[in-house]
């Protein structure tokens, strides 16, 4: 069980769930190429929770469960169970199924799944193992059109075929579909071509789940430090700068930020 936090935005509740904590195969300095201004030793001292075995990048993979009067929405689908692509890559299985159970929910309770992008650590729970069927059997699944377009034809990775394939075959994929009242996608390109954040607005507060736009808190101080996994580094840096400029009015969370929260917010 790794329930991180619950926020009441006013008529909308948001549960932050950590699906898995893992050490990246690469050292922190490789995962974020380009030395930060303060130097790596300072980063390691300031953010010890991001340093794993042998100096590797230690990170959690967070998802959101958003509940409004009208819908139960899962934002991102995590590392997934043992046997998923990301569980193999990171050598750790996710716990989202148990975490949803602890909240009194079954997969059938989820009405909508929203995906910030299609990297393997964000789609891991989409398929029920051994069935080839969508785990969230009643849910509409939304991904941005630009992201979906980027994985067509020869560009489709095996993990996308294995996870989104059954969702599409079941008629549950809604590319560029609208979300629900109070929620919408916000394009945050660079990490992937169609990477998008998810804005959630309640009566009193609003927050932005920024996906992988920021992957390490050092990028808040120095948005020019790229992530190894950023497909278009210049675009990702521009997106981070733009997001920092408007962050004052938002609570911002990241899929892999420690505790999911933007430091100083939440
Ligand atoms: Zn990720």
From TrEMBL:
Alphabetized InterPro entries for the sequence: MBL_superfamily_lactonases, Metallo-B-lactamas, RibonucZ/Hydroxyglut_hydro
Annotated Metallo-beta-lactamase domain residues: 60-256
Entry keyword set: Hydrolase, Metal-binding, Zinc
UniProt key word Hydrolase: yes
Molecular function via GO: hydrolase activity; metal ion binding
Homology family: Belongs to the metallo-beta-lactamase superfamily.
Annotated protein name in UniProt: Glyoxylase-like metal-dependent hydrolase (Beta-lactamase superfamily II)
